[in-house]
Amino acid sequence: MKILAIETSCDDSCIALAECSANKFKLISNLISSQVEIHRKWGGVYPTLARREHQKNLTPLLSQTLKNVNVLKNSKSKIQDAKSKELKNILEREKILFKKLSKFLEKSGKPKIDLIAVTIGPGLDPCLWTGVNFARALSYYWDLPIMGINHIEAHIFANDNFSIMNEKKNLPALALIVSGGHTQIVLIKKLGNYRILGETRDDAAGEAFDKIARILGLDYPGGPAIAKEAAKLPMTNHKLLMINDELSINLPRPMLNTKDYDFSFSGLKTAVLYDYKKRTKKEKESKQYIQAMAREAQQAIIDVLIKKTIKAAKDYKVKSIILGGGVTANKELRKQFQQRIEKENSRFELHISSPKYCTDNAAMIAATACFHKTINNQALDNWRNIKALPNLRIS
Ligand code: KG4
Ligand code: ZN
Fold first, then answer.
1. Is the pTM of this model over 0.85?
2. Ligand 1 atom closest to Cα of 151?
């Protein structure tokens, strides 16, 4: 069966198309329209702007995606009044999208698609609704079943060949999901059955990267910007590189030694801000200070993520550790996780996808839908029942 997947939970408009059966998943198309340029000047995602961009992006992405399944007709035919009225109803709050989609549907036939999958949460409310209403409109117009997907679960399913975990070999597993909105350690005893063991009590790790980058005057998104600055320092102990003791930086590792599996990153951001404020103008503007601070902040986040995840992996005697979410695109985090697992005599199998599947994409939404449809036998839904759930939890 062919699955069309839609993801708009944050600032990336994503559409993917995949061929799915119980033992095979083949990605046919995976498109992403990034809004980084739009949000850069705000230093973070501006939800109403993101929603407007999703409205503009989704139809062109759909059109490009469906070229793979020969959907375009040569002639234009007007949408029946009743159908147009219902479409307008569904897209009542997405006027730009309604216009663009109507034009596209007029010149397109029904594509050979069997299921529409869409992220319903967690995420930013206006962004989620745009994707959900878009999916509802297509499901109504083409009379196709629809499936709502949990974004965090999808990050767990994002791996390079989108293969489903082997229950005997890989489970129980532990997933560390670290993104701009979430930092969670999830226990997976059986696929489709999840328990959150710990999570952040305040800022997510990606949010910490973004906020710290902003304090330091670095680019948005902050994660890659901080990683880039940190990598400019040679691999020796960066603290030794500081010109004198006064410039040495020691950031806290919040909750590093607590018995639970929770995180807290807002204190780290505050510590960076205090240190930054006490610096002279000359120090603040020096490359050396920015690079050392970036390295120390990145390392503080890595230290906590690795220690807590390994502790949970040992406590719950898991066989595999899965890393997912935008922050796991971080090279240093990936390297240090690998080194740490080797130190544990590789008693855990580490699963990290290539960076392009760590950040948001719709391929992972299609893969999750494929699992629920073919293996988990989840019932399909009707467009009338699907809604965005910004605070959706995985367990
Ligand atoms: O999963 P994602 O693409 O979107 C959400 O679901 O939030 O994650 C985005 C987050 C941003 O906070 C971004 O700064 C962070 O992932 N990120 C990184 C890197 N690439 C993206 N953080 C650290 N290092 C990176 N290389
Ligand atoms: Zn995400």
1. yes
2. 6
